[in-house]
Amino acid sequence: MTSLTLPICVSNSSTPNVLQLTGQEYLSTLQTPKNLKELKTIHAQLIKTSLIKNHLLLGKLLCCCSMSNSMAYAQKVFDEIPRPNVFFCNVMIKGYSESGSIRQAMNLYSQMRFLCLTPDAFTFPAVLKCCSDMLTLKEGRGLHGLVVKLSYCSDVIVQTALIDMYSGFGCLTDARDVFDRVLERDCVCWNTMITVYSRWGDSINAQKLFDRMPDKNTSSWNTLMDMYCKAGDMSTAYRLFEQMPKKDIISWNAIISGYTRLGDSENARKLFNEMPKRNVVSWNVMITCYVHNRRFAGALQLFREMQFSDVKPNEVTMVSALPACGHLGALDLGQWIHMYIDKNRIKMDVYVSTALIDMYGKCGSLDDAWHVFDSMANKDAFSCSTMIEIMAMHGKANEAMAIFSYMKESGMKPNDVTFVGLLSACSHAGLVDEGRQFFEMMSRDYGLVPKIEHYGCVVDLLGRAGLLDEAYRLIETMPIEPHSVIWGALLSACRIHGNVELAEIAVSRLLELEPNACGNYVLLSNIYSKANRWEDAARVRKMMKEKGVLKKPGCSSIEVNNEVYEFIAGDYMHPRCGEIYQMLDQVERRLRDQGYVPDTSSALHDVDIERKEQALGYHSEKLAVAFGLISKEQGAPIRITKNLRVCSDCHAFLKMVSQFYGREIIVRDCNRFHHFNDGLCSCSEYW
User: Fold this and answer.
1) Three-state SS at 308
2) What are the residues whose beta carbons fall under 8 Å from the beta carbon of 81, sequence distance 6 or more?
3) pLDDT digits (tens, 9 = 90+) for 613-671
4) Across the chain, which distance is largest between two alpha carbons, in Å?
5) What is the pLDDT of residue 648?
6) In 10 A of CB 108, how many CB atoms?
7) Half-sphere exposure of residue 44, counting CA atoms within 13 Å on the CB side?
8) Residues 6+ apart with CB under 8 A from 649
């Protein structure tokens, strides 16, 4: 194939041959991907100049179609070839294989065999790559037999493809047998066999093979190191990393990814800082590491630093950074990222769009979330399920169910996440009958086996509605062992409805599962306090102290001018704390004049009313809203994110603030969103 030459026009003139130069120019042009319009133009010019008869140029045109993800057009060009030879078939099979169109690749191979065209050393690697994805092991062995029959046993590329094919079927013995028969192995062959062992968790044979390898390259070291990283053996992985004679950027990224999987953000960041050079993968891995370890502020700081580096963010960066904005409620920064995506024409695929929906929803901007969702050209079950979850968080049960109806009408199959969102929506809206129907629908209509998350939603649904006995019976009859989420949902319901006896049962199970989880002790103490069982409440607090369990402090965050500020109860750390407390005292005096009376049932210690009111007065969400009132322009919404459930006193306080200060206040607590507007809350007191 490489011996093919371009057509040459014979001329007696000494002038350079224009046709030959034109052919060379086309050959150069077809080295890079083109859009469909450019491909059609080049194809037309090749036909016009008769260069279409040149096999090399025609093959390059087909290759360029493949690189440009225009296989449909490549097929049209291929269909016009009167008698396609093996070369053209190989180009098409490889193109379909690399684009993931396995069935089309195999159909073309079958057509090739039907036309009695003999496969060559370029055919087998592409076909074998498709084999384990579509064919059976029996057919794979048939291809192996044809390789032997056509005398390609000494071709290392074909043999390496066979090794990879057997690996896809889990036939490690067959893969090793092929490897052992290869007389002249190259690094790719060695690395492939090591990868086979790594893929199937056989670190012993992988290490033995690596030790035997005569000429190790950087890829060999990376393959073995990545195996130990994925197995969680970071001490061995790091030892290999240090021993590597030459480290490339893939090596650095692999070891950082290994620490990321283990949640070790400290070592990951240490290595990240030491990297001699970073690429977009390096930044993406580190940002993702911080997000997975709930270091959201650190993730956003990294994203800012990336803006000043010589590396341009891509769609993966956006999908990594946007969740940090969502968790912190950093809407301004999230909107800036959205503008950055549009301005830099970053591919708005389903993952980026869904990440934007999730960010806007968790930042309390439901309109923006819906706008992104509505503008998506290709919605899928993933994006629809995310939108259903967002609607559920905001108490929009009817809207969540409408999206589910759209999914059914569009032929989308709902998944586990879809039903978690639907059940959660029913729970927040008190739609018990609808929730029961969705729970039954999962297995009856879609063959989905309910998981622990679904049972947790149903327990929460029944518990919030006061059906505590039914919720407890469901837990007792579950086909899977209930874990802390299930018992936690029941305990929360007991707090709402004051069921002390059932709460004690739930806590006893929770203490077995999570003996050091502070929330369980706090909830039981609160339940005892609300029932005026002060001695029992004190006993629980004493138990916490003896076990060294510390109460998780309430924390509220608010974004002002692209900065996220956090407050805890009685916080004096903010540089403007004097103004904040002055504003808070002013607000409380005004609200008291309008009839506000602190709900001291939220202050759960056996002390006098005055001390209870003092404890309530400086809750973190009150400090955050006071800061919002002095920092945000008149009439601007105030968005607050809290790590715990909003107490009943703060809930009443925020309703009155929204009315008398003419502000929309949007609060996301650990359960749901509360939209306070004109003295009312979107939760309708059902939370």
Assistant:
1) coil
2) 58, 88
3) 455 667 889 999 999 999 998 889 999 999 888 888 889 999 999 999 999 999 998 88
4) 113
5) 85
6) 23
7) 6
8) 598, 599, 600, 601, 602, 603, 616, 619
The token pair at 172 is 């490690």
Q: State the CB neighbour count (10 A cutoff) for residue 324.
A: 28
Q: How far is CA 327 from the centre of its chain?
A: 14
Q: Which position has the token pair 């506000």?
A: 596
DSSP state of 363: T
Residue 209 burial by Cβ neighbours in a 10 Å radius (0-12, 13-18, 19+): buried
421, 402, 422: which is closest to 410 by C-alpha?
A: 402
Cα–Cα–Cα angle for 418, 421, 427, nearest 5°?
Answer: 140
Tokens 């997975």 belong to 292
- Pure H helices in 99-248: 102-114, 123-134, 137-149, 156-168, 172-181, 187-199, 203-212, 218-230, 234-243
pLDDT per position as a tens digit, 569-581 = 877 888 888 999 9
Burial degree of 32 (CB within 10 A; 0-12, 13-18, 19+): exposed
User: What would the two tokens of residue 386 be?
Assistant: 């995310």
Q: Residue 92 burial by CB count (10 A; 0-12/13-18/19+): exposed, middle or buried?
A: buried
pLDDT at 262 over 60: yes
- Residues 219 and 248: beta-carbon distance below 8 Å: no
Contact 94/126 with Cβ under 8 angstroms?
A: yes
How far does CA 246 lie from the centroid of its chain?
33
Render pLDDT for 454-478 as a digit per residue (tens, 0 to 9).
999 999 999 999 999 999 999 999 9
Taking the model in full, what pTM does it have?
0.75
Rounded to an integer, what distance in angstroms lies between the CA atom of residue 589 and that of residue 596?
9
Say yes or no to pLDDT of 390 above 90. yes
Owner of token pair 């192996």? 144
Sheet of 680-681, strand order: 563-568, 555-560, 638-642, 665-668, 673-677, 680-681
User: What six digits make up the tokens of 128?
Assistant: 């074998």
Distance between CA atoms of residues 297 and 222, nearest Å: 31
Distance from the Cα of residue 655 to its chain's centroid:
35
Percentage helix, strand, coil, to 5, in the chain?
Answer: 65, 5, 30
